[in-house]
Every structure is written in C-alpha cells, then in structure tokens.
# Entry
Amino acid sequence: MRISRALLLGTILLVSLSAYAQDRFEIFGEYSYLHFSPTITGVDSRSFNGGGGGATLYFLKIFGLKADFMGYGNTTFTRTYPTAVVIPGNGTIPAGTYTAQGDMFTYLAGPVLRIPTPLIKPFGEVLFGGSDTNGYVNLSKSIDQAGGTIATASQHPFTMAAGGGVDLSVSHRVAIRLGEFDYVLTRYTNPLTSTNNQNNFRYCGGVILKF
# Structure
C-alpha cells in the first residue's frame, strides 16, 4: 500500500512539474560574432568568431533568468613602436613590431524579458559576469622576449552584455534565434597604457530546445 501511494504521489509530482515547466525551460546553442575594441593605441578593433550555449528558465513565460557561455577563436594583435617607450610604473617597451595571438571566453547570467507571442518572441536582456582573454598577456610576453619589462597577469574582469533579439518558433519544442544583438562592456586593464573599459558588440544566432 505504501509503495502504491508513493508511486501515485511520484506520478502526480512528475505530471505537475511537467505542466509547470512546459515552455518555461530552454537550452540553446549559438554561433557568436564579437567585435572587440582593445584599449591599445594603434591597434584596430578585432573580430572574434566563436559560439557556445546556455539555458534560460522562465517564470510566467515572460520573465526569465539566463546563463550564457561563449568562446571565441584566436585573433592576431600587432603593435609597432618606432621608438622605445617608458611606461611609468609599468616598465619599458623596446622599439619594434610585436605580434601575438589571443582568444576570448565570456560567462554571463542575468534577467530576460520577452513577449511570448505564439510565433515570434522578441526579448531583451541584461547579463553580468566575467570574461577572459590571453591577448594582452601574450602581447606583453612578446614585448618581454624582445627585452621589454612589461609584466601582465591573467585577468578575469567584470563583463556586461545588454541588448535583445528575436526567436522564431519552428515547433512546440524547437525555435530558431534569428538574431541577438548586444552591447558588451569588458574591463580589461591594458598593460601598455594602464587603461580599461572596452566597448564591444556581439551578435548571436542559433537553435533553441524548449522543455
């Protein structure tokens, strides 16, 4: 009798959770393009290509909490100094051209608001977290190998993404993220000029599975 009651209770609980969670939990995989603006004089903005995924849990189908993880492949940083440079309190840079590779990873979470229409679902979001790139570290190492004295440690600075996009429902369980467009703030300390706050842009698009 106790086993029967337990099975009945478990069945009711599973059905209730399934009904509650319907179209409330999503996982997604996306391609992502990041336009990164390094705070190094003479180095142009960089284009990162990559992707990742994450999940969103919605409440009342309107407000949600999102976790977002993206990784981006290598890009090349090149900086030329026609004469030697002395950075007070942070070392010296010999004259020369320095090249290094750098990748990037972001991990963000925060609130999402969407309009839950049947076919098209516009949404807005503000995500907070951190990021990591070895671009500045590798460039500093390149300078030090040429006789410079720039010391740079790995950084995991505050990072924020704010923007929104549009999802297109394909079926009850599948949707396509047509586009997500975000302003991305990163706060890497540039060892060459002791500045921070990079103003960046990213696009994401991919597939969503709904539960």
